[in-house]
């Protein structure tokens, strides 16, 4: 019970006794529990002598007298208190056993409050004398003696104590409850906390479901066989939305994974590990409704007349059978394209055909950037050049050549690689290999007047300014003519239109420009007369059907559909084919039902039964018309993104009826979030995010594999 509460209990009683309250002065000792009770006068006097005439507190006397004064007024007589004719000779605490009501109120009520009586009354004089004889102690032995002299309060005493407290309290109505503040923030935090828990639970369930695929039904031989060549953007987008229960699906590809190519330049410098952007194709196929067969092989020939695909095992370990054929009813070609090096037509991001003259030496001395193996070779070549340049007694001119990195191609791939390479040097290489910091240089070569021709002029200028700040040299209107082991022969066009040939020494050459038709696609084009005028790939119609065929479709870089050969186009083409194939399966199912109902209508016994069947046929025809209402493929451009180094990026995004062109650090974070959301699976997103964080905290690895 607190001091304030005890004061509210006893204060009205003291007011009736014409008394007032005053807190005890600082430094005064509090009253403690009385010493062990003694009934003899000698014991009482001994206690009094031991403690002296303390005037610390008369609280016990006040409480006892006020409680008993109504029932026994004789207590106000000093002779009654002491039992002698002389005034106050025995400590008042000796009489505590006589004050039975005091047992319920004694000691711990208000030790720091001191009653002071007003002069002029007998009670005041008696209390003053009794106060001078009050007992106080700080000895621990006396604090535990109450249990031996204080009797256990009876039920009547407890009830009386509670009644006095209730009747004597001056407290007014209870204070109003404090107004709760920030309730919105408190509920917002709770919702955030619960949402985070729900998100973690959902992610955990998704991981468990991904790790534990369910059993799949075996293929039905009565269904059509759909063969898909490749595991690129177009093929995987098709498989992702295709209902595999409608077909017997077979996938053929020389690689058993899907590669997220937009982040491939980051793998060349160690910003992202290559397995973080790879998703095993079998992990994906095992979660389809029906089983899908996968053959890790390369399609070497397509026989359109026989409807057969010839495949060959290209792995190092071969079995007894390494070449076979796969029949098909429907075929989707999504094998992509090769790098254009010499004698091919370049597939530029805009609708321009540009013939490149023969460029010897590119395949022998240059590196490409289309596959995981290409990124690993580039990474090793970078470190080889740096370590060789620091070799003992190396010639200064040779050091400059080894540390000159040349990138051919001003598209998104070339620009992003140049930016990543310069970041690698600024953040890590010059710290761990300080000998190369004065000689390392990056040059970007482009045959067109500008880099990033698919972006707006504003972003092109911003990219060129950023490269200039990063000391990256851009050589536009420059065409490579020949590549040797140590030099590049290039022809550049000056502002006055004059052409001049020069030699560029290099240590690393990355060829990131142009697409060429793969041999299997060339062979198929030769079999189809309608493809004789096509030079860059398989010509397709508005439904992506290869011209001159009925059951062959093409998606991605191997198809010529008047769109840029980008991952965005290939993904939309694959999704379109999935919707069309699903509708085709529904159409065939509805037509089969219509045939059965037509036979049932002819065999109907009466007019009522025929009318009932007719209504069913009518409803199926309506449904068939809805299913067949699928229009031609229409590409929806969502925008273009490119990283340009120094934690900056450019974005040309479709915004309502126009385009939003932006560049800078904020765009860089948008570029990261966009690519992170486009990753194929949750596993890829987590791994890529961890790699970014690891590179930022610990830096990139400069070891050579």
TrEMBL record:
Family, per entry: Belongs to the NADH dehydrogenase family.
Entries under Pfam families matching the protein: NDH2_C (PF22366), Pyr_redox_2 (PF07992)
GO molecular function terms listed in the Swiss-Prot or TrEMBL record: NADH dehydrogenase (quinone) (non-electrogenic) activity
Protein name: NADH:ubiquinone reductase (non-electrogenic)
EC number: 1.6.5.9
Superkingdom field: Eukaryota
Domain FAD/NAD(P)-binding positions: 225-574
Keywords tagged on the record: Coiled coil, FAD, Flavoprotein, NAD, Oxidoreductase, Transit peptide
Reactions accelerated catalytically: a quinone + NADH + H(+) = a quinol + NAD(+); a ubiquinone + NADH + H(+) = a ubiquinol + NAD(+)
Keyword match Disulfide bond: no
Coiled coil feature spans: 583-630
Extent of Basic and acidic residues compositional bias: 25-39
External alternative NADH-ubiquinone oxidoreductase-like C-terminal domain ranges (all copies): 637-701
Species of the source: Westerdykella ornata
GO CC, any one term: mitochondrion
Entry-linked InterPro entries: FAD/NAD-bd_sf, FAD/NAD-binding_dom, NDH-2, NDH2-like_C
Region described as Disordered: spans on this chain: 23-53
């Amino acid at each position: 019970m607190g001091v304030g509460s005890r004061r509210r209990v006893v204060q009205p009683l003291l007011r009736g006794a014409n008394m007032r309250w005053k807190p005890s002065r600082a430094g005064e000792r509090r009253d403690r529990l009385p010493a062990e009770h003694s009934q003899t006068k000698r014991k009482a006097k001994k206690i009094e002598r031991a403690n002296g005439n303390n005037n610390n507190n008369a609280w016990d006397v006040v409480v006892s007298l006020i409680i008993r004064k109504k029932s026994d007024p004789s207590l106000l007589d000093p002779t009654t208190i002491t039992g002698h004719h002389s005034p106050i000779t025995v400590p008042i605490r000796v009489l505590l056993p006589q004050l039975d009501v005091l047992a319920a109120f004694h000691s711990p009520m208000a030790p720091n409050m001191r009653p002071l009586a007003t002069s002029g009354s007998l009670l005041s004089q008696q209390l003053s004398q009794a106060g001078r004889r009050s007992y106080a102690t700080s000895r621990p032995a006396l604090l535990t003696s109450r249990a031996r002299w204080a009797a256990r309060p009876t039920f009547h005493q407890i009830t009386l104590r509670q009644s006095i407290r209730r009747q004597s309290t001056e407290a007014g109505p209870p204070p109003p409850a404090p107004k709760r503040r920030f309730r919105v923030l408190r509920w917002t935090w709770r919702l955030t906390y619960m949402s985070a828990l729900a998100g973690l639970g959902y992610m955990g369930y998704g991981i468990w479901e991904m790790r534990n695929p369910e059993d799949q039904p075996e293929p039905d031989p009565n269904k059509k066989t759909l063969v898909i060549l490749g595991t690129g953007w177009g093929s995987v987008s098709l498989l992702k939305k295709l209902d595999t229960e409608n077909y017997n699906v077979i996938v053929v590809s020389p690689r058993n994974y899907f590669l997220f190519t937009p982040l491939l330049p980051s793998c060349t410098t160690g910003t992202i590990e290559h397995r973080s952007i790879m998703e095993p194709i079998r992990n994906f196929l095992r979660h389809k409704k029906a089983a899908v067969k996968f053959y890790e092989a390369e399609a070497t020939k397509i026989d359109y007349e026989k409807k057969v695909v010839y495949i060959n095992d290209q792995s190092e370990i071969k079995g007894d059978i390494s070449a076979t054929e796969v029949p098909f009813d429907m075929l989707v070609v999504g094998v992509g394209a090769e790098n254009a090096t010499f004698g091919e037509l370049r597939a530029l991001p805009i609708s321009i055909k540009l013939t490149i003259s023969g460029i010897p030496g590119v395949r022998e001395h240059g590196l490409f950037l289309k596959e995981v193996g290409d990124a690993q070779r580039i990474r090793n070549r970078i470190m080889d050049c740096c370590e060789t340049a620091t070799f003992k007694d190396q010639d200064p001119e040779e050091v400059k050549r080894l540390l000159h990195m040349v990138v051919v191609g001003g598209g998104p791939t070339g620009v992003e690689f140049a930016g990543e390479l310069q970041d690698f040097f600024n953040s890590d290489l010059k710290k761990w290999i300080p000998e190369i910091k004065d000689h390392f240089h990056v040059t970007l070569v482009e045959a067109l007047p500008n880099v990033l021709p698919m972006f707006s002029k504003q972003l092109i200028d911003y990219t060129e300014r950023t490269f200039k700040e990063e000391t990256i040299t851009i050589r536009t209107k420059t065409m490579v003519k020949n590549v040797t082991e140590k030099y590049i022969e290039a022809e550049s066009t000056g502002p006055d239109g004059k052409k001049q040939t020069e030699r560029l020494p290099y240590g690393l050459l990355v060829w990131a420009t142009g697409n060429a038709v793969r041999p299997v696609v060339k062979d198929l084009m030769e079999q189809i007369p309608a493809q004789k005028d096509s030079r860059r790939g398989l010509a397709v119609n508005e439904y992506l059907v290869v011209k001159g065929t009925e059951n062959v479709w093409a998606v991605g870089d191997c198809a010529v559909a008047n769109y840029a050969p980008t991952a965005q186009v290939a993904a939309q083409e694959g999704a379109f084919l999935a919707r069309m194939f699903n509708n085709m399966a529904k159409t065939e199912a509805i037509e089969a039902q219509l045939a059965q109902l037509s036979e049932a209508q002819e065999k109907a016994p009466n007019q009522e039964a025929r009318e009932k069947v007719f209504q069913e046929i009518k409803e199926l025809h309506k449904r068939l018309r809805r299913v067949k209402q699928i229009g031609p493929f229409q590409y929806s451009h969502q925008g273009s993104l490119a990283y340009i180094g120094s934690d900056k990026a450019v974005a040309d995004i479709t915004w309502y009826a126009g385009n939003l062109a932006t560049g800078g650090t904020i765009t860089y974070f948008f570029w990261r979030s966009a690519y992170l959301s486009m990753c194929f699976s949750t596993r890829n997103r987590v791994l890529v995010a961890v790699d970014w964080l690891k590179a930022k905290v610990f830096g990139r690895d400069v070891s050579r594999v």
